[in-house]
Amino acid sequence: MTEFLKKEGKFTYVEAGEGTPIIVLHGLMGALSNFDATFSYLSKKGYKVIIPELPLYSLPLLKTNVKNLAKFIYEFIEFKNLKDVVLLGNSLGGHIALYYIKHYPKDIAALVLTGSSGLYENSMGNNYPRRGDKEFVRNKTRDVFYNPEIATDELVDQVYEVINDRNTLIRTLAIAKSAVRHNMANDLPNMEQPTCLIWGKQDTVTPPEVAEDFHRLLPNSDLYWIDKCGHAAMMETPEEFNRLLEEWLTKRNI
């Protein structure tokens, strides 16, 4: 994916393909590489796929929240002069997409949510991450997936690095608390964009009942399940995730 990396002004992103723009928003502990398979697949299927690097750890602390992350995406879309955008978000990325649509709906043609926050926040369980406790981090990372082997040493090291640095840990907690404050339940019935919900049946971070609530509250949504899959379907079952997403985009003529 690194060969597609671009830096323009304050924006760092990967971009490939031509066609309808799909902007992919990664989660709180996530990275651009979480969507590697989807990026590669859809960019060859008639879509311009763009994954911006979210400024999770570079905004001023008082501005490190869902609101300003959505504003950042608004500025990015304006900078790229994109129209009829599909927003695709996992976890916090889905929450940012929802907040974006609430405030800047005009250029969004469709929405795709997978394991999205916005209704129910359990991303850290009942415990905050402990600095210096790598086994705790390893167990928490494994809990994200149905198959714990997806939580490779490299992935555990990435999460460990984030929470073992005071600067990034403080911002991680600030964003998590912001997500709790910005519950979207009352806003969802007003979001009329076609919405695709792809959910792991074994998601313990945003459990299946969260997907059902999204489906009930969003007036124009379709819900798809993936069995033996946790919170990050695009990482754990990428082929099934991509198949369902492409089928939905085709069905909806997007």
How would a textbook summarize the main sheet? 8 strands, mixed
**Order of the strands making up the biggest sheet:** 1-2-4-3-5-6-7-8
List the secondary-structure elements in sequence, H or E: EEEHEHEHEHHHEHEHH
Number of helices, where a helix is a run of at least 4 consecutive DSSP H or I residues: 9
Mean pLDDT: 91
Tell me the overall shape: globular
Helix content: 25-40%
**What structural class do helix, strand and pairing data support?**
alpha/beta
Low-confidence runs (pLDDT<50, min 5 residues)?
123-127
Kindly state the number of beta strands.
Answer: 8
From the alpha carbons, calculate the radius of gyration and give it in angstroms: 17 Å
**What percentage of amino acids are in beta strands?**
15-25%
Distance between the termini: 25 Å
Q: What is shown here, in short?
A:
With 254 residues, this protein is α/β, with parallel strands linked by helices. 39% of the residues lie in helices and 19% in strands.
What attributes does this structure have?
254 residues; alpha/beta; 9 helices; 39% helix
What does this structure look like?
This protein has 254 residues and is of the alpha/beta class. The protein is 39% helix and 19% strand. The chain has nine helices and eight strands. Strands 1-2-4-3-5-6-7-8 form an eight-stranded mixed β-sheet, sandwiched between helices. The chain is globular, with a radius of gyration of 17 Å. About 2% of the residues have low confidence.
